[in-house]
UniProtKB/TrEMBL annotation:
It comes from Pseudochrobactrum asaccharolyticum. Gene3D superfamilies: Aldolase class I. FMN binds at residues 78-80, 107, 128, 130, 156, 252, 274, 307-311, 330-331. This is L-lactate dehydrogenase (Cytochrome). Its cofactor is FMN. CDD domains: alpha_hydroxyacid_oxid_FMN. Belongs to the FMN-dependent alpha-hydroxy acid dehydrogenase family.
Amino acid sequence: MSTVLEIADLKRLAQRRVPKMFFDYADSGAWTESTYRANESDFAKIKLRQRVLVDMTDRSLASTMIGQNVAMPVALSPTGLAGMQHADGEILAAQAAAEFGVPFTLSTMSICSIEDVAEATKKPFWFQLYVMKDRDFVRNLIERAKAAGCSALVLTLDLQILGQRHKDLRNGLSAPPKFTPKHIWQMMTRPQWCLGMMGTQRRTFRNIAGHAKGVSDLSSLSSWTAEQFDPKLNWDDVEWIKNLWGGPLILKGILDEEDALMAAKTGADAIIVSNHGGRQLDGAPSSISMLPRIVDTVGDKVEIHLDGGIRSGQDVLKAVALGAKGTYIGRPFLYGLGAMGKAGVTKALEIIAREADVTMALCGKRRITDVDASILHKD
Ligand SMILES: Cc1cc2nc3c(=O)[nH]c(=O)nc-3n(C[C@H](O)[C@H](O)[C@H](O)COP(=O)(O)O)c2cc1C
């Protein structure tokens, strides 16, 4: 295997090992993908201050997110179909995250179910909720997350309707899925992936299958799912969910100061500044460019997290310096998963931790909890 030094190496490996339609599903954004690109490229515009002759011994990336200890302030984002990047993907990623000491967030649209992940891991994980029109199903999901001991609920607010990704449509990754000879060929040319998939029963949306009314096969399941996102979702629903859940709540998908104020008023434990990794509103600004304004507006009222475009430990430090108490990685861990399963997710976390640690030292800081805007150039 070629040397893996950075997240881009894992991405290249994943591209070779994951069937094209699923690799593209991860590596795509809405429409022209301008927001997806900006999420990454805006990090590069932020410059770090190089410091010298500062004591750099005894460094630590340890911190907290919503009061929970983390080995570094980097959680794994909820991502649908992670179990299609690699067989049993969510279980493997959850195990890697738990061993590393960072939170794993299971998506509503996962392949492995809440119960599958709970059974295969020892530490509590976080659960991400999409509010579906079928509120009985939502109530039941929340109960299942509680029963599984999930230690936070991440409520996604920016997917009332689905953004369009051209790559997915061109690949025929639609609801219901259309399996053509092209797909079969894409899978056959990835024999390791196929072997993994043949060795698991987990090949459908297991949080939904068997739990939603009127869902019997893959076709009805996909159609149900596509129709279930609720365009009427509103702030009263957030209150309803908060009361039903009763535990730590994180609101995901805030990109605007006015929405941040509304979100802070709900009493949630944290908000995630996010544009869904550039997969929803193409043309929206990058997450990192909006972070300082949102911190100015509600930084004294609620804990602020950020996702979107983090590809290195340097990016993590920049987000922390601009006021994020925590960050999340989506594609970096999916690339690791597609490339090498659990070992690849661990590798992604190790790469990011090492980069964050060295960068922190060269900026003259020893603890990530002391990192602030002083590590950044002002102009
Ligand atoms: C393949 C993929 C699937 C995703 N599925 C979900 C999901 O089910 N729920 C959700 O809240 N966000 C989902 N997201 C968005 C991520 O949680 C996160 O906001 C985004 O990936 C962060 O950007 P990054 O990939 O640049 O790190 C998904 C992102 C990707 C790439």
